[in-house]
Design a protein that fits this description.
2 copies of one chain form a homodimer. Chain A is α/β, with parallel strands linked by helices. Chain A has a single domain, classed as Alpha-Beta Barrel (TIM Barrel), CATH 3.20.20.70. Helices cover 45% and strands 15% of the residues of chain A. Chain A is built from 14 helices and 10 strands. In chain A, the strands form 3 sheets. A 6-stranded parallel β-sheet of chain A has the order 2-3-4-5-8-9, with helices on both faces. The first copy, chain A, has a two-stranded parallel sheet with strand order 1-10. Chain A has a two-stranded antiparallel ribbon with strand order 6-7. In chain A, a hairpin with a 3-residue loop joins strand 6 and strand 7. Chain A is globular.
């Protein structure tokens, strides 16, 4: 059975690291990631340069990516200007974002959930005409840093608002990594009652070390697509010092050992993480990375 | 539903740390652990002083522990001399050990599995007369560092050899932390066909970040007892730099959030880990510790 991995380290990862990585280093990092066999990678975002300086080189970076890499890439866009930039740079897939908690969208983008989805309507219409695939992130599907536990019905309501968007995939984000498998099970039981399982991807943060258990539960319930970040890159902005994204290494170890197909080389992902680790001068939180890097460096 | 936690940091944890902790510091650490509400703790082992210098103060330490703590403690004993020491020091529970891989027992104690179990027969007879509870560790129940994957039938054979021992609990150890839930499921399906689920505890190492997923699967299959180590203390001797024991913090986070009763305060465990962290001068690998320590230190 094939499991899809969407690698988010160049965007979601680097955006949350304090050090700014040069365009050339990003290019090398992305090339290393692609060499591992990854087929889906979120390479950057087209946002206001002053907002996220870590990704202010998205135009320059995009010009350096090959068509092959671009065909396997998506970019995050916050608005129509970002969408136009994505289109101009030759991407075929964009990602947009909302959340299942109004407090979260209000604090982050000063809109309600409804308003945030409405703000993407123009993009949605354009994407349909331009033949651009849309991936939607929904944050805080289990817990919100401001509201606490999020009732699954709130997530379902949010998804219902997206029906005109025809997203090919909706990534369900446990943004603060607080969820446990029983939470995931309750949510998916509700969603899969109405929507097909191949509409969803699991985006579990590993803040409390629960991500793999949530992935395992999701697979049991029919989900076949997960987001992860090489080396676990990208801390959790809501808990200083804590880990954020699930590490691609840990996800791959779990998937490969469990007998699923991924098409991705664990060794090459570790090598990519090791490259970016040196540039960022930081420790890699992935346990699989820590366990295997001494063996890989020996060879 | 109540889940039992056996805290192994003072023995299994400290034994694998290079720095030797003083008896007074161990006493303070154990007291802090007990204050958290833990009801089962492996406090030390009675082994040859030259073999494991980290635990060479087991007699001195034992004299400082209160009767209340001793009634909730177990000690590891490798032979009859160790057993006599445990008895003399007032313990009511001992732990002995074997493995499901002959290569592992041969490399570690220069005996086959059968020989290792035979070597514990005198202890077993004495314990029955003395009214001492026996807990048995079986290492390498999923993977062996020398043999690789271990067939569940090999674990069953090992357990069958223990039938005269009347252990009240058998702790199933994924010693190198290489197992995934599907491995755990295969093993437990075989064992629970013959033995009751309350005979077993899960002892999952977190080397590749799989421990919580294995715990979750074990609970689904009826296991209600797990070993863990505060702060994840105790590295993996088979993979330098890698984490070993499952952190009690991560286990507790999972259990509490999943609605199980533990009787243990997560905050107090973090406080105990933080105490020993400063003495060992090391980073704590537990993700739950990393996420919560800034909040706890603020208060």
């Amino acid at each position: 059975m094939k499991i899809k991995i969407t690698e988010v380290s160049p965007r979601d990862g680097l955006q949350n690291e304090s050090k700014i990585v040069s365009t050339e280093e990003k290019l090398l990092f992305i090339n290393k990631l692609m060499e591992s066999g990854l087929e889906h990678i979120e390479v950057t975002s087209f946002v206001r340069k002053d907002r996220i300086p870590q990704l202010s080189d998205s135009n320059e970076l995009s010009q350096l990516l090959t068509d092959d890499i671009k065909s396997k890439s998506s970019v995050l866009v916050p608005n129509l200007i970002g969408y136009e930039n994505a289109l101009k740079n030759g991407y075929k897939e964009i990602a947009i974002f909302t959340a299942a908690s109004d407090s979260f969208t209000k604090k982050n983008i000063n809109m309600s959930i409804k308003e945030s989805i409405k703000s993407f309507e123009d993009i949605s219409k354009r994407a349909l005409i331009d033949g651009i695939r849309i991936r939607v992130y929904i944050s805080t599907v289990l817990y919100c840093p401001y509201e606490g536990y999020i009732n699954p019905s709130k997530v379902l309501e949010t998804i219902n608002l997206l029906e005109n968007f025809l997203p090919y995939e909706i990534s369900l984000g446990d943004t603060i990594g607080a969820g446990v498998p029983s939470d995931t099970e309750k949510l998916l039981n509700l969603l899969l009652n109405k929507y097909p399982s191949n509409l969803f991807a699991g985006h579990f943060h590993d803040t409390y070390g629960m991500a793999i258990a949530n992935v395992a539960k999701s697979i049991e319930l029919g989900i076949r697509s997960f987001d992860s970040s090489s080396g676990g890159l990208g801390g959790c902005p809501y808990a200083k010092g804590a880990s954020g994204n699930l590490a691609t290494e840990d996800l791959l170890y779990f998937l490969i050992k469990s007998g699923y197909e991924t098409g991705v080389s664990l060794e090459k992902i570790i090598s990519a993480s090791n490259y970016i680790r040196k540039i960022l001068n930081k420790d890699i939180s992935s346990k699989t990375f820590q366990a295997l890097i001494p063996k890989i460096e020996e060879n």
